[in-house]
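Today's session is about reading a structure prediction critically. Students often jump straight to the picture, but the first step is always the sequence itself: look for stretches that repeat, for charged clusters, for runs of hydrophobic residues. Only then move on to the predicted structure, which in these notes is written as discrete structure tokens rather than atom positions. Here is the chain we will use throughout the hour.
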Amino acid sequence: LTGNSLVSIDTSGSVGIGVSNPSDYYSTANQLVVGGSSSQGITIATGTSGTGALHFADGTSGTSEYAGYISYKHTSDSLRFATNAVEKMVIDSAGFTKFTKSTGGVVASFYDGTYGVDLAATATGGSIQTFNTNQKLNFNTYGTGDITFTTSTNSERMRIDSAGNVGIGTTSPDAKLEVSETATTSGDARYELLITEDNTAS
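Below is the predicted structure for this chain, in token form.
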């Protein structure tokens, strides 16, 4: 099907929309080519409660029908990505990205070919870890921002300010290390720093 038609099917069975030579494109992805001289695109339209999806299949039954997929769920305005027939990443309507791994462990890796950082999560907690044994882990802010450490629903426990001062129990440390405790019900304030020695060595 050629001539003045906007759709071309060449002798190999490749389909071109807006192009007359679909087989000239990369051989593993030229069965359908949409193109032209200006900006081009493909739209998947659904109802407001529907989901639009692109599936990657290696079979016609079970999970092989959707071994991988990209889908947009309109009821929650979220974009979803799956591998091995399991959803692994969601970008929600607020722009937050969630990585999912059913067995826990490393859920996201940032890797440049030699060095990288893993984000891991398990039932007992989360961690940030480096790939390489000689690689250091930096916590850095630009400008005059502080680094804070929080627990128990965002309760601040420790702060490193822009001057390098460390505060425990205070948000404005005035020394290289300041440990502070709020006053008790009796009116007494406690300042605590406990140093212990391990005497178990022979």
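Discussion point for the tutorial: The two ends are 88 Å apart (CA to CA).
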